[in-house]
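Standup notes
- HV: blocked on the assembly model, inputs below
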Amino acid sequence: MPNRAELQPRNRVEQWKTRLAYTIMGQRATALLHNLADKLNPDNSLSVTAGPSAPLLSWQIRPRQVITEPTNPLLNQADESPSTELPTVSAGPPKPVASKTLTKQQATRNNKLRNILAITIAAVGAVGTGFFGCVLAFQYQTCLLFRIFGYSLFSHVDYALFIPLTIITNTLAVLLPTIGLLYLTLRGRTNQAEAPFALPEALPAPQEPNEPTPPAEQTKEAPPLPALPEEPEDMPAPQEPNSATGAKGAEDDSTSAVPKGIFIGNQGQYKATEKLGHGGQGDVFKGINIKTNEIVVIKTLTEERYRQATSRDGSQLKPAARLTQEFAIQSRIEHSNIEKAIDLGISPDNFVFIAKRFIPGTTLKAYIDEQKTQGQEPAKRVASSTDIIGQVIKALSTVAKDGVGHRDIKPGNIMITPDGHVVLIDFGIAKDVGFENENANDEERLTTKLAVMGTVQYLDPYNITYLKEYVTEKSQKLTEAQKQAKLVNEDGYVRTWHGFVRITNQ
Amino acid sequence: MKMDMYALGMVLYELLTNEVPFRVKGLGDYTLYVGAVVSGNQEFPNKISQGTIPDELFMVISRLLSGKLENRYDSYEELDREFQLASQGLDINQEAKAEAFLDRTIAAIETRPSLTEHEIIILEKMTSEILGHEKYQAREEIKTKAGTILDHVQSLIS
């Protein structure tokens, strides 16, 4: 398999640009990457046309919607003003193409039908043949008994017929459900790898009727993605030795886990020097700007996370889009108590990364642990605590004015510099009212259930008090606020800020 | 946003006492806890502070962590103001501060429909301290103010 890190920087940028263009949340990133691509190759400006022309493989991201360049106002905007500032999205998310949606619905329906069929075959096979087999076996036994006792009810039937019949039916009783289950398992596996709604041949490329794009031009504009084995079994394991971010077992060895290549950002180029942390969403490295020697914090996605995200229907690129949103928030808000994001670009492993200003010091978690062992005087402790919390309140009020909720306030996300300055960090799951994708699918139960464990301690139960109304009403009459907040999804799961919680009447 | 305020209350409590107000282990606990909050029987730590948390800060924390929405702060500006006042602390011996405290409390009682349990306890304690202080025995207005607060608190308790 060709190493993806060997790709040319320009190709990597182009790939990501194409991919991110398909997500609504990723459009700001797309604009930035557009600038970056122009910088890397000013002669041949890139254009995002009807998706990658190479046949999509099972692990690759399917396009959610096809965006041609003239219809994408963001990209045009980026063309006109090649500044590094984020363009403000005021027009809202673009409407998905109608035919595309249909295809998705049809495909989902087909999948469901197929699954139901398989289950029915398995069930009927198990029950029917098993029962029939038992009956036959019983009859055979009875006949034998009667024969032993000298007379038979079935004297006109050849007893020998029962033997093969019993064998056949019992074999079928074992085989049919096995086949059904095997089919289901295999389908599930391929489903994981493939986005079921967008099979390449079923995807109608909305070409202009007047000027159909010749295939040669397509390949020229969008270079084929690296050929990878199609079988999911052959997919490289996450613990690949040469992929730095995916190495889960290398957590202890921080230096070996640092990616060797260069992080190409919009503002500069960075090199990772040290691994700072390994979160659910991504890895955090300490890095350095190659030109200015400025120390930065680099946050990128883990390969594992990336794969997970791409294998789930509807939530493709969610982590990448979250990272983009984090950058959008943290680069926009200027406050001394809030961590500042400075750059966004492509990591050596061909993922999106963001760079933030490095903050020396410890987290509040370490501070509290230290406080536990040391045992301060009460008066001193009150003074220092109120100082810290006062600064956090200032940061939060600034953030709230901007229409952003942090949603992950905890001691681990508050940094204290040696001189007592407090900085709020990690807007990774923050909610930005102006940037939230209202049309996105909520199919993130698997990931969020896992994520709920970490910070449930600091999770506001008020988020679920809407539930009371939901339980009492027991109907689809959700209030407007609930609908907007999407607190309750169709299955009755209540959405908290950290995940879905199922709560029953009792 | 209110969930940030809640988490902030948690962090503040943890900073002051090195413990979390209630340990929530995993989703099951959380569901129970949410149920308690929803049904109005929120459990707040009973082992109040013994000197580690100043009363007024505790009032702020109880408002931040309150299960009832109307007890929460409406904005960060309000929180900031109250928090600054609370972190300065109340010295009963200073007349101006005591009077300002009474005024503030009366204003809060008039505007807010309900108080948190801990607010009620602490308010009663502090007001009766002021009322019983020998320094203010001659001050009629302070006595009437404290009296109205105590009356209100008594009505809330009963």
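- HV (later): unblocked. The mean pLDDT of chain B is 80. The radius of gyration of chain B is 16 Å.
- Next: hand off to the docking folks.
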